[in-house]
Amino acid sequence: MFHEWVRFMVHVLRGGERRRSALLMRRRPQGLFQPYGTTQEDRYPELFQSIHQLLADIPQTRLLSFGCSTGEEVFSLARYFQQAHIRGVDIDAGRIGQCQARWRREGRECRLSFACAGDVAQEETASYDLVMAMAVFRHGALGARPADCSAWIHFDDFDRVLGDLARVLKPGGLLVIRHANFRFGDTGAAALFECLRGEAALGSPIYGRDDRLLPGVPGDDGIYRKRLSSQASSSRGLSC
Ligand SMILES: C[S@@+](CC[C@H](N)C(=O)[O-])C[C@H]1O[C@@H](n2cnc3c(N)ncnc32)[C@H](O)[C@@H]1O
Description:
The chain is of the alpha/beta class. The chain is 30% helix and 18% strand. 38% of the residues are buried.
């Protein structure tokens, strides 16, 4: 306990990203998944290319980066998509502040926007062509593969947020999940989607609906397409 407190104080005093993550873990807002803001410019170039080929780059196209951290994902997407509207959402107000500061420095493009939230309850139904949830539905502490993840993250939160991400996608819209500690296929929303492309398992531990570790079970990260309402959910399996 004393060691934990010392470590917390060291991170707080060091400042920067470590301070932000330490404070977020201490505050633990409702629905928090990955507290660390690790990100980088053009982090997923091959994936961004694929998405660029699947979606039209026109002003009507709307993209959402859920768990955008300090905004690198949004600004990178803005280079692949020169016309689309792109919104970044993150649970941490400080990170959203950094996104907005960069947005002001780099010309205040009105097609880019940011919001601080831990879910998408404020977003309109069927308003997005793409939702990216990259490295958000996980927790750094799970690298040690504890038998139960509920001290850090909960499947029920994942299921709830995925239901709402499905709601804000247009029919035919794309959902991209990467580096999750849960399987999208276990959620209630999964029946609304077909899998376009699965990602190779990267070795993240996977937890089930009961928050228990599923030893040796691979994840199902990938690109999913929301079915048109006319398509029967049972007509095709989710798996890629
Ligand atoms: C590792 S960063 C991922 C950044 C970026 N998506 C990437 O892949 O480079 C995870 C981010 O998810 C955010 N996050 C965690 N739980 C969240 C939630 N419930 N709603 C929105 N953002 C969340 C954290 O604040 C953090 O900035």
